[in-house]
Design a protein that fits this description.
The chain is of the alpha+beta class. The protein contains 12 helices and 19 strands. Strands 1, 2, 3, 4, 5, 6 and 12 form a 7-stranded antiparallel β-sheet that branches. Strands 7-8-13-14-11-10-9 form a 7-stranded antiparallel β-sheet, covered by helices on one side. Strands 15-18-19 form a 3-stranded antiparallel β-sheet. The chain starts with a strand and ends in an 8-residue tail after the last helix. The structure holds adenosine-5'-diphosphate and the ligand O=P(O)(O)O[C@H]1O[C@H](CO)[C@@H](O[C@H]2O[C@H](CO)[C@@H](O)[C@H](O)[C@H]2O)[C@H](O)[C@H]1O. The ligand O=P(O)(O)O[C@H]1O[C@H](CO)[C@@H](O[C@H]2O[C@H](CO)[C@@H](O)[C@H](O)[C@H]2O)[C@H](O)[C@H]1O binds next to helix 9 and helix 11.
Amino acid sequence: MPEAASIRTSAGLLPSLAPLLHGWLPRQRWFAGKGQLVTGFSLVSATELLPLTGPGPGLLHLLLGVRRPAAGTSARDCYQLLLGVRHTLPPPLAPALIGRPADGPLAGRTVYEGLRDPRLAELILERLRTPGSSGALRFDRFDGAPAVPGGLRARPLEAEQSNSSLVYGDAYILKFFRRVQPGPNPDLELPLALARAGCARVPTPVAWYESADPLPYTLGVLQPFLRGSRDGWVLALDALAAGSPFTDEARALGRVTAEVHTALADGLPTVELRRPHTERLARAMNRRLDEAARAVPALGPYAPRLRAAFDAIAGLGHAGRGWRAQRVHGDLHLGQALHQAPPPGAGAPGGGDRWSLIDFEGEPARPLNERRRPQPPVRDIAGILRSFDYAARTHRPWNPDWAERCRAAYCEGYAEAAGSDPREEPELLRAYETDKAVYEAVYEARHRPDWLPVPMAAIDRLAAAPLRPPAR
Ligand SMILES: Nc1ncnc2c1ncn2[C@@H]1O[C@H](COP(=O)(O)OP(=O)(O)O)[C@@H](O)[C@H]1O
Ligand SMILES: O=P(O)(O)O[C@H]1O[C@H](CO)[C@@H](O[C@H]2O[C@H](CO)[C@@H](O)[C@H](O)[C@H]2O)[C@H](O)[C@H]1O
């Protein structure tokens, strides 16, 4: 591979690409500011991974600052782009077209989404196989992992996701982070810590790449592809459609969640959450509720009762109670749990712990420092409990008993492996379930308005449930 160059020819490059990106960027699934005007671009870094002016396809890695009115006048989001550059685009790549710059260094060339070009995608895998630097980018690999073979065919993952992924030969998956923030991304940091601790419940990051200049960004992570796996959401809906229980699977998932939590607590810092942290936690939940009620007016009438659930945490803190906080997944739901069917003759499906957890990025819209903060593990548990409720609510007829049995089995499995049952902390569990349902109401109002009744039904239930007076 030719030596990559870090190009700082911002003069000319950005002005020639900007008119194309103005139209293309807001249409991308992973673009966070959908429906909003992009007011300007800036070049954070540009690395020519393959020469742009050679006879073959060129490959340009960009970190692009994107200004939107909502991001504030001085704030900007940073996006990772991988642009292919050719004289003409072969017909199979037509859907990847971004445009043809009218002037500047790329005038007359065709610029397209590089990840869609198998030749360029394979070059990235080649680069990940050997540690080292390419311009502004630094490639690294996990010492304990077997070497990644070369020559694996690449295909883009056709999934609704917040980032973009490539699957190589059904053996590896590369997640290419789109909106990046400076600092270690928990989706690399936590799986690496778990791999070092010997925890096999999370795919090991075998290789990754970052940029160090001008700021440290985690850009991509390669991990084993769990071939033939199905996610917990799909499996739960299948079970509901078949009228089958899902309790074995739920119990096994509870055990796996506990194993991951234990390994994270052993390998990374933990803190004791006592007053005044309990007050801060309640304040943060109340603040999120206030913001949510502005975005989803239907939450307004419930707000006083929901606030009481958050204030109960502060109340317990005043009464001297505290909770252990540690690094957690941060956005756990059934779609983040992948299940691999046992090999033929290996016993009942759902038995055995064939679950893996993925996507440790946390809620991508939150600042990185907030996502990396230790939090009570109940936060993740609440996420999965909400998911069982979601599955039961989306299925007709509504089957609340199915959800209740799954929720109980999941907590039992968790207790078996962790030694403590999350239901023994009802105030904390309720506050986190409420916080998650509030988040979901905003998510659904923004992305899937037809689904808004699902979290709103939980809001209605949570607001109506009686609260225990704090023990004095
Ligand atoms: N290791 C893996 N093996 C198999 N499929 C995976 C793996 N990691 C992710 N996936 C698939 O890719 C999808 C997107 O991955 P995810 O990490 O959730 O990305 P995003 O953060 O962009 O939403 C998942 O829903 C899952 O279907
Ligand atoms: O997977 P992401 O990290 O992008 O998570 C977002 O999208 C999820 C939906 O895909 C959303 O999850 C909500 O819907 C799920 C069913 O589709 C359900 O299982 C979850 O419990 C529910 O929260 C998630 O909240 C959002 O962050």
